[in-house]
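Dear support,

Our group has been running a series of protein-ligand predictions, and this particular one with 3-methyl-2-oxobutanoic acid is the one our PI (initials K.S.) wants archived with full inputs and outputs. We had some confusion internally about which version of the output was final, so please treat the block below as the authoritative record. The input we submitted was:
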Amino acid sequence: MAGYLVEDNRKVTTLRLREMKTKGERIAMLTAYDYTMAKILDEAGLDAVLIGDSAANVMAGYSTTVPMKIEQMIYHAGSVVRAVKRALVVCDMPFGTYQVNATEGVKNAIRIMQESGCDALKLEGGIEIIEVVKRIIDAGIPVMGHLGLTPQSINKFGTFGVRAKDEAEAQKLISDAKALEEAGCFSIVLEKIPAKLGGIVSKELSIPIIGIGAGNEVDGQVLVVQDMLGMNKGFNPKFLRKYEDLYSRIIDGVGNYVSDVKQAAFPSVDEQY
Ligand code: KIV
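Confirmed final output from the archive:
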């Protein structure tokens, strides 16, 4: 089935994302962690799907992404890969799988690619992870960078607040982004930084910059799907636009089911064998 806004049904590649930037066509990306949701997102015409390690928060209820394990990412990524026909599928390398040394990082990257079937990987960090980024790309695996708020380092930052507000951190972010591009990354996610800085990075780099809380001057946007569908009632950061209120809809739907079951109004005669 074609996405309802999409005429070109060919599989999206990293090259295609690059062409989209060149043509000024914005890139729409969301997270997914399971088969059913990923299938709907793909059929709705999304360009790229991210199996974010935010699965730790959204699917497992942890307060950070630090506990996420490689086996759990592979499980989520495999479920998404089996659903998606068109969108580019990018999987996060979880905390601890690429920070120890480059050789271990490459082994883990190959394992995620082979066992999940995803198209590309995302790693958090700049200059400090450049060696492992290069080695993974040398192994033939496309890498998306991730700068700004990098949740795997939350225990170092101590806050989920906006990053790179001061000049020194902004300059470091720009040089990290350039280093990632030079290392061969096909794209970079910028999370929770001033909009102006997002625009500068997007202009100075030729690879697509995907923002989450990074303003409207970047080349595309990514959000956590449960957040943008309004399932996470108490989560209302400034950068988030809720396109649905699924929390209320699910409460209503489930409430009606409970009431029907209690009153023996479900199943009806037509719903029985
Ligand atoms: O894990 C995740 O969902 C992410 C996005 C917020 C970009 O990295």
